[in-house]
Amino acid sequence: MRVGVGSRNPVKVAATEASLGDRFDATVESVAVESGVAEQPFGERETVAGAENRARRAFEAGYDLGVGLEGGVAEVPGTEGLYLVMWAAVTDGDRVGRGGGVRLRLPDAVAERVRAGEELGPVMDDVLGESNVARNQGAAGALTDGIVDREEALAGAVAGALGPFVTDHY
After folding, report:
1. In a domain, 87, yes or no
2. Which of 68, 134, 140, 147 has fewest C-beta within 10 Å?
3. SS3 135
4. Which DSSP state fits 9?
């Protein structure tokens, strides 16, 4: 089985490989596709749409399964602040599975900059004094001191999106 991940980000490919594990005899490949949403998705709806667009476009590039992963920020009803959110979508062209990942409240100083229009990745690079945080531990790893990193957080989202493809409960 060939699985296309709609991203050039190696963390997203690794998260997909980790989720598939030995359950599938799969070759996972990176596919450059557009998300069709803002560079910094805002809200659950836009973040889910980005994941679905990436999955569909990866599938349409000639794969058995298309996987899309999208990180965004969202306000969560009943809470204060702005949260990092992660969504995954998986499609075989007929079915679409969706799964959400870890949600982490962003520090107020980071949230203020994102609300002002900056992208989370570069803001985290600046705050941490590093580069390419999004291609490494991600905001999730930085904000949990490594308890969960970006790959693990995304892998959980992919695992949830795989539900319709691994059980008969859907």
Report:
1. yes
2. 147
3. helix
4. -
State which amino acid sits at residue 83. Answer: Y
Contacts 24+ apart (CB under 8 A), 42-48: 42/72, 42/73, 42/74, 43/72, 43/74, 43/75, 44/72, 44/74, 44/85, 44/87, 46/72, 47/71, 47/72, 47/74, 47/85, 47/86, 47/87, 48/87, 48/89, 48/98
Indicate the number of domains in the chain. Answer: 1
Which CA distances in Å does 60 have to 21, 37, 57, 110, 124? 23, 18, 5, 36, 33
Q: How far is Cα 136 from Cα 72, in angstroms, rounded to an integer? A: 17
Tell me the per-residue pLDDT of 63-94, one tens digit each, with 9 for 90 and over. 999 999 999 999 999 999 999 999 999 999 99
Q: Which two tokens stand for residue 130?
A: 């590093």
Q: State the pLDDT at residue 33.
A: 98
* pLDDT at residue 78 in the model: 96
**What is the CATH classification number for the domain harbouring 86?**
3.90.950.10
Burial of 43 (0-12, 13-18, 19+ CB in 10 A): middle
Residue 73 lies in a domain: yes
Please report where in the chains the tokens 């702005």 appear, as a residue.
82
End-to-end CA distance of the chain: 21
Question: For residue 80, what are the domain limits?
Answer: 2-104+148-166
Kindly tell me if the per-residue pLDDT of 135 is higher than 90: no
